[in-house]
Please model this.
Amino acid sequence: MKTIDIICVGEVLIDFIGHEINASINKTKDYHRFLGGSPTNVAVNASRIGLNPLLVASCGNDGLGDYIVRKLRSNKIDVSSLKRIEAEPTSIILVSKSTETPDFISYRNADFNITIEQLSDAVMEKGKIFHTTCFALSKNPSRATILNRAKKAKELGLKLSIDINYSDKIWPNREEAITVLKEYLSNNPLVKLSEDDCFRLFNEVKSEAFIFDYFHTLGASTICLTKGKDGVVVSDLKSGLFYQKAIEIKEVKDTTGAGDAFWTGFLYSQINEKSLEDCITIAQKLASIKLQNVGKLPDNINIEEVILS
Model:
C-alpha cells in the first residue's frame, strides 16, 4: 500500500536568516535560526498540508542536530531515516533576508553523508513520489545514494521529482553537475527550476525554448520554470505549454523557501491528479503564503481553503 506521499532525499541543515531586510551578509548584524534544506522544507510543507512525507537525510550528532530532530518531530516528520553523524557537525547556511534572490554562505559538513541503508526497497515501495535536489547531488556519498535509489524508484513505479537548485557556490564543477543531472533526468522526473538556477547552471542567459528543449532531451516530460515576478511557465510533452502570471503580493517578507513551498503545492496537486493548470495555481498560492511569512509556512494551513481561495 502506498502510504508515503513524498520521499524527500537530501539536505537537512540550519538556515541562519538575517534579521535586517535587504541587507547583505556583510552588513547583517543578527540572524534568526530556522530548520532548512530544500528537501526538508518540502517534507515539512507536505506535512503541514496533510500529506505523509518521509525525509531521508543526515545531520551532526550535536546541539544543532538535536534542534533539527526536535523541529522535525514537532512538524510530525518521521525521523527514522535521519542519520546522525558523530564525526561531522550539522551543516549551516547564512542567508541574507531579501525580497529578491538572497545571498548565502554555506558551511557544509554532515548533510551529504546519506547512504543507501537509510532507504530500503521495502520502504520505497510505499512511496508515491521520490524527490531530491541538485544541492543534494553535489557531493558523495549522497550523490551515489540518490542516483542508486532513483533508479530503483523508477523500477518500483514511483514518480520522480527534482529541484534543479544549482549554485556554483555549492557545486563549482558545472560539467560534472550536468553529467550527474543527465543521469538523474533519464528517469523522467518532474523538473522544477528557476531562471536564476538556469543562469547559474549554464553561466549565461538562455531562452525558454532552449531550457525546455534541453531538459526534455535529457528525458524529462514535465518542466516547470519559475520566473519570479514574471510568473510560471510549464512545458509538458503531452499537454504543451502553460503560462500563469505571478500572484500579486502587497508585502514580500522573505523569499527563502518560497520555491520549496511552490513545489510542495505542485507535488500535492500531482498526487491528487489535478490538471497542470491547477498544479501551477495551487503551487503559486502556497508560494504566495510563504512569501508573506519569515521562515516556515504558517501553522494550520487548510489546503482545501487554499485551493478554493
Observations:
- The first strand starts at residue 4 and ends at 9.
- The radius of gyration is 18 Å.
